[in-house]
Amino acid sequence: MMNVGLIGKTAILEPHALKLKENSSVNIIGKASVGSHTQLNSFHYSVPEFNRVELVERADVILMDNSTPHAFRLMQEMIKKSKHIFCTEHPALTIDECTELNKLANESGSVVQITNPYYFTPAIQWMNENVHTPAFIEYSNFEPGGTASESLYTMLLMLLGITGISPKKIGAVAFPGFNSSRFSNVRLEFNDASVISLNYGKLESLNDFKIRIYADNQFVAFNFTQGTFLCNNKAVNLDQYSRTNEFDHFVQTIEKKVKKNSCLEDYLIAMHVVQKINRKLMQFSSL
């Protein structure tokens, strides 16, 4: 039985806590909440409140969001104590901080997993197993809310199992639009000749999330917004691919039953890629 502690805003962590209760190998021992008194009372699940120091000492595993002050120092102390961490949001770390945490995690044996919800969906699982490479992959995601960096991390981590996230060449362009809309395109070229074209941003009245893949004798068209999934113009049967719970995978990683996925090392690689992309996009910031 793993003892789990929650650190962060209750509104963000409550859905995760409710899912955790479905895992028989997990025991939620308490939370260290961040937020106002009103926000704390919004957590209608009976979880005792602790200060962070005591909670970290008692827990084997910590779920945390980005609301905790001095997150790097907190993660650093937890990893030194061989605690395992599941980040429900992309950690607000610098590259140097992430590099140090990754080194510490490798030394201490701590498992640190970063949220990667799309990766565990049936559609992406099918793509990981069936898409031929090299391939040309066109990814379009125009959804309300979120920031450009969040969109990039979500897209890059989702594609871990198909091409990886270590391109040999990066190109990027961005254009402003009307009513504060913005379109960005990133082109990633890989050593196996695969190419990924990422289209994202905010366009008025557009909510669109789709992936199109062109490969040897293979054309894949997945429209997540409309819920249509085609390969060579035929419907793809996703029934054999159940949606994997991220935290269940995290627990299995700790138990050494599966390989690490979306770990700090993956996130660090993604951070370097995002940094290079943002440098490319800076030349369009005045447009």
UniProtKB/TrEMBL annotation:
It comes from the Bacteria. InterPro entries: Gfo/Idh/MocA-like_OxRdtase_N, NAD(P)-bd_dom_sf. This is Gfo/Idh/MocA-like oxidoreductase N-terminal domain-containing protein. Residues 2-114 form the Gfo/Idh/MocA-like oxidoreductase N-terminal domain. GO terms for molecular function: nucleotide binding. Pfam families: GFO_IDH_MocA.
